[in-house]
Amino acid sequence: MPGKGKSATLLGMQNTPDGYGAVAKALHWLSAILILGGWLLGQTLDLFPKTMEEGLKLAHMWSGLGVLTLLAARLAWRRSGPQPDPIPSALDPWLARAAAVGHLALYALLLAVPVAGIVLSFARGEPVSLFGLFEIASPWARDRAFARSAREVHELLANAIMFVAALHAAAALMHHYLLGDATLRRMLPRAFQGKGTAA
After folding, report:
1. Among 76-85, 128-137, 154-163, which stretch is predicted with the lowest mean pLDDT?
2. CA distances from 177 to 48, 56, 168 (A)
3. Can you tell me the distance from the alpha carbon of 55 to that of 35, in angstroms, rounded to the nearest whole number?
């Protein structure tokens, strides 16, 4: 209903032409935390005692499932309302095109990395636990060769998403410090926004 939509906008939940709302910001930063946390767990899992291995593997799996869940929520939220207006830049149109390609790559990897992790679990003959609520049994028998290949793909994609995310962060910093626009500020939580930032 129109009245309900206006109320949500006034409360800062929805996006406006000037910036992102609280929901979009929360989905963005929660995704970033899970991506970084899941990647760090994957890189350091062998450094922990064996007694912690199962719990850490479960945390790693749930971080990937969390990324998938948040991806679905982000796509649904994008379709539910308007996106902020693009910020003009002296480097357009190539900068706008590069940003579009980068976002597409990031969204593709947000899907591909967790899916590859699920395939890896199944290749090992292990079930996938959906946040402890229930498990999906592996449809395949354990296959060491397949699991080895699946792990290599999963690791390659995980490193790729960190690389693309680093480029994404570097671009945001470039907008903030070199171009002096509000691209970074309008995605920051309100508490971190500087003076002059659009509401």
Report:
1. 76-85
2. 39, 38, 14
3. 18
Under CATH, to which class is 12-188 assigned? mainly alpha
Q: Is 13 exposed, middle or buried (0-12, 13-18, 19+ CB in 10 A)?
A: middle
Instruction: Give the 3-state secondary structure of residue 93.
Output: coil
C-alpha distances in Å from residue 120, one per residue of 38, 75, 114, 138: 15, 25, 10, 10
> Across-strand partners of 135?
129
pLDDT digits (tens, 9 = 90+) for 31-71: 999 999 999 999 998 899 989 989 999 999 999 999 999 99
Q: Cα 130 to chain center, whole Å?
A: 18
Q: Are 41 and 59 in contact (CB under 8 A)?
A: yes
Reported as type and span, the H/E element at residue 156 is helix 144-174
| Nearest one of 100, 83, 57 to 186, comparing CA atoms | 83
> Is 0.70 surpassed by the pTM of this model?
yes
Locate 90 and state its tokens: 């002296």
* Boundaries of every domain in the chain: 12-188
65: tokens are 């499932």
